[in-house]
From TrEMBL:
GO molecular function annotations of the record: inorganic diphosphate phosphatase activity; magnesium ion binding
Primary enzyme class: hydrolase
UniProt entry tagged with the keyword Protein biosynthesis: no
The protein, known as: inorganic diphosphatase
Top-level taxonomy: Bacteria, Pseudomonadati, Bacteroidota, Flavobacteriia, Flavobacteriales
Organism: Riemerella columbipharyngis
CC cofactor: Mg(2+)
Enzyme Commission number(s) of this protein: 3.6.1.1
The keyword Hydrolase belongs to this UniProt entry's keyword annotation: yes
Record keywords: Hydrolase, Magnesium, Metal-binding
Transmembrane regions: none
Length: 203
């Protein structure tokens, strides 16, 4: 028998045949996690990034889109949108949150998701976009086509998480959200990150 190998979740899986309209998502953490996991870039295995020291728990499934990378194209999009202090992308795969009404017990899995918008987040001069998506076929969220269709409370909950999840008590926030954008711009961000990936890791 020929040996079989597990595909690297960042480099060995595509962003999706229908990307950016429908994307593959590798889920790293779920709302019930009290530890923040992330993929080890070298091995592809999930590793412990840090325990969640405070009560800030991710309000949606969280991970990244395979074969994406945030570099010059992502930076240029942020600058074109008015973020004049951005100097670079964050040099990571593109982050994505997936809304679902289903209770998924753990990460380290793949799913299909439809991008509906995102946050233009700037973290210490780096463009660090967060794409918001809905799980394909979800009974509660599957019909949503744009972030403008979500209740304001849902958007505020996601926004609050990203503005505070790196903070230590009494420290000044290190990041900000300059804009909440809809599905069309989210697709531009995804396409730009796919282009950055090809430039960095392509042929």
């Amino acid at each position: 028998m020929k040996p079989t190998y597990k595909a690297h979740p960042w480099h060995g899986i595509s962003a999706g045949e229908k990307a950016p309209e429908i994307v593959n998502v590798f889920v790293e953490i779920v709302p019930s996690d009290t530890i923040k996991y992330e993929v080890d870039k070298e091995s592809g295995y999930l590793k412990v990034d840090r325990p969640q020291k405070f009560s800030n728990i991710i309000p949606a499934l969280y991970g990244f889109i395979p074969k994406t990378y945030c570099d010059e194209s992502i930076k240029e999009l942020a600058v074109q949108s008015g973020a004049t202090d951005v100097t670079e992308g964050d040099h990571d795969p593109l982050d994505i949150c997936v809304l679902s009404s289903h209770h998924i017990h753990s990460g380290n899995l793949l799913m299909d998701a439809i991008p509906i918008g995102g946050f233009k987040m700037i973290d210490k001069g780096e463009a660090d976009d967060k794409i918001i998506a809905v799980m394909v076929g979800d009974q509660s969220y599957g019909h949503v086509k744009d972030i403008s269709e979500l209740p304001e409370a849902e958007i505020s909950r996601l926004k609050h998480y990203f503005l505070t999840y790196k903070n230590m008590p009494y420290e000044k926030a290190s990041c900000r959200i300059d804009d909440i954008y809809g599905a069309e711009h989210a697709k531009k961000v995804i396409t730009a990150s796919m282009s950055d990936y090809e430039k960095k890791y392509g042929k």
